[in-house]
Amino acid sequence: ILAVVAVLFLIMTSQLPDSQYSTAVGPDVFPYIASVGLLLCAIGIFFKKEPESEQKPFLTRAGWIRVLKLVVLLALYPVMFIYLGFIVASLVSLFFMISMFDLEKEEPVWKKLLVSTVTTAALYALFVFVINIRLPAGKLFELL
Q1: Contacts from 90-97 at CB under 8 Å and sequence distance 24+?
Q2: What is the pLDDT of residues 65-99, one digit of tens each?
């Protein structure tokens, strides 16, 4: 299923318009990267073999609850992005995602904050300084 979705994404991405500038990153670059990543994951899953005796249920009740929380968080991210801006929305979202998938490890809060902050800063630097895309500060911060 994952391979089919990846191929469909690749087909749909090939239909996106080209960039007007020959050297600029076009609107199709990131969807291509994501599609190829999905396809590689599908190939990896296909070749991974688990003995029949070690197979576990796909998702337990706790797993489904975690998936639901993740769906809610991902649905809230665009709203946070608009009103709080890229930095705050990404920092908060990453922190909660790391906390959700921490499972048995129970890492200290400062480590989760550190990873969230470094990841957000790296993504911000990539978009602003490398790709030269301005990220929104958020409507609430524009009022200040």
Answers
A1: 90/116, 90/119, 90/120, 90/123, 90/124, 91/116, 91/117, 91/120, 94/119, 94/120, 97/70, 97/73
A2: 888 998 999 899 989 988 999 999 999 999 999 98
